[in-house]
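Q: Hi! First time doing this. I have a protein sequence and I read that you can turn it into a structure. Is that right? Here it is:
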Amino acid sequence: MGKTTKYLIIYIGIIILLIGTAIELAHAETQDEPPVELHQAKLDQMLAPIALYPDALLSHILIAATYPLEVVQAARWRDEHADLSEQQALDLAEQQDWDPSVIALTPFKELLERMSKDLNWLQDLGDAFLANEAQVLDSVQTLRSRAYAKGNLHDNQYQSVEREQEKIVIHSVERETVYVPFYDTRVVYGDWWWTVHQPIYWRSPRHYTYHSGFHWSPRFHISAGFFFGGFHWRNNHVVINNDYRYRRSNHRYIYNKVRQYPRWQHNRHHRRTVKYHNGYKNKHKRTVVSRNYESQNQRRHQKQVLSRLKHKEVQSNRGVYHTKRNAQHKSERFDKKATSTTRRSINTGQHKVKTDRVSKHQRASRGDTNHNRLNTPRKSVKQAPAKHVRSQQARNQQVRNQQANVHKNVHKKVQRMSSSKQQHRAQSSMRKHSSRAANSNSGKFKARRVEP
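A: Yes, that's right. Below is the predicted 3D structure, encoded as structure tokens:
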């Protein structure tokens, strides 16, 4: 018996150690990850319509955004149970296997519809919150401080605004009551400081009341179990107390109590197989853009442009090479045709003038290459015998003599034509002079008397 109990205790101890190591690894996966620096302009643009919400409601929105599929399921479930009151919807939603923050949003029907319709905004918000929680909360405080400086964020009958160590805390005035504000993001924060990324604007429902620049929703009377989440602004992280949400005691939002809650941890089970597009755990591509993303895009664009230019240059060089080869081929064919025509004229003894013109054109364009080709044999062909060379030279000499004779005959004809023209002109001028002298002697042309 002693041995069996001993082995059993050892076995139980090993199991406890394995469970402890597994829990530590799970916490290490969700914690202690290096934060990703987000694109501040897009982050301000994304947080503009919700940054002025009460802290308890805003904390639930940020946590629920990390589980976008459950938010969509909750919005559809709320449409099916539209006749339920806020507290009835909250109590009935406890039966669903959703994250507590998603369940806490079921009383707010319009807000759930808004979040489920704009899925890109919802997923980007959740990815940004997972990537860098501290930067998201810093951006919320920046937006609140700008609205506070413009005089658009102050105490009223719906909310209470407190400043504590340069941090702005917003909570409901009445106990167990929440008002959802809708406001014009283009006006509340003053002149927007990002020219390219303008703030997201949500239109307020018609049945909301307008007061001091905000459209306020009807009063949502909710039990104290709704106020189990908030912010620890000094350390810039979200805190929750899941045990507190099951209590039904009266509660008012008190910052000193909320910051004593434990830090919120992301639960991958409620992600429902939705991929992490923000590089969370370094497994998927980031959709929330970092500051280096624009420089990387510029470098990628420059590489693409350079590759296109190189490709065009290579194509143009290929075209020039082909055109040069084609031109050279055409010139060779023209030379072959010219030599064939000269040989025909030599053998037949006809078309002397045509051969003379071709030889003149060839001499002017190629510097008398035909005669050089006829005189000098090609390198690729074997050297011809001496008799054949002599006969070829005799033929070339005969062609040259014929061309010289043609030039002489043409020159003689021109001289004859010019001499005959000169003689004809001289005879005609002599005739004119003789006719004028005869007429003057006959008195035909007498001087007229001009009276004064």
